[in-house]
Amino acid sequence: MTTQIHPGIERMLRDIRWEAEEARAWIGKSELDPRVLEAMRQVPRHAFVPRDLEDCAYDNGPLSIGHGQTISQPYIVALMSDLLATESHHVVLEVGCGSGYQSAVLSRLVKQVYSLEIVPELVQAAQERLSCLGFGNVTVRQGDGYQGWPEHAPFDGIIVTAAAPEIPPPLVEQLKPGGRMVIPVGLPYMRQDLLLVEKSSSGEVTTRNMLAVAFVPLTGNHGAVDE
Asked: What per-residue confidence (pLDDT) applies to 201?
């Protein structure tokens, strides 16, 4: 993986810190985990956006990556990674690989990332990009993220980067006791809530609403609203 740091990264990190401070009343703290910020420093976001949008790569906003999908706002990537409370030995599932940016950030925080993406063209592009950039602990495959990846379950953490109309029961089932899931829930073009789902050591599941968000819908043959 390249070690050259893009000059836009420090500006992006300042924006993330500022937004975390502004959102402290909702997220319950004013600073994000330094491990998460360092992971984001190590990932060249401009390599995960279309070439004609590279000049905007470090702006604190989402960008289109084609096929009706987006790369999430850097602050949201940082917040979701923070809420997952990862440790270096963890194995996590990502639903919605997209361009692979969130996968790459998580790869700097955990042992292994398994990532599902339903759009074939995005799967191939993400695989090639992650491999070329040296993110070797990310495995990407095409699949309906609503159903999870049972072959590698249970997961220490699950992160969902598209809005589901409900918390998918298969993902709850695949979450390890003591694990966390971060998922936007709601309908397209309507209110969506970023939920933190926690499963206790005894298997009890609780949810907390962290923030109002806007994500593209989770697609697939599971009753969600398709694009």
From this structure: 93
Left if phi > 0, otherwise alpha if psi is -120 to 50, otherwise beta: which for 137?
alpha
Q: What is the pTM of this model?
A: 0.92
Per the omega criterion (within 30 degrees of 0), is the bond before 74 cis?
A: no
Count of domains forming the chain:
1
pLDDT in tens, 172-216: 999 999 999 999 999 877 789 999 999 999 999 999 999 999 898
For residue 199, being part of any structural domain is answered with: yes
Catalytic residues: 72
**Reported confidence tier of residue 217, pLDDT bands at 50, 70, 90:** confident
Owning domain of residue 159: 8-213
CATH code of the domain covering residue 128? 3.40.50.150
User: Is 57 a domain residue?
Assistant: yes
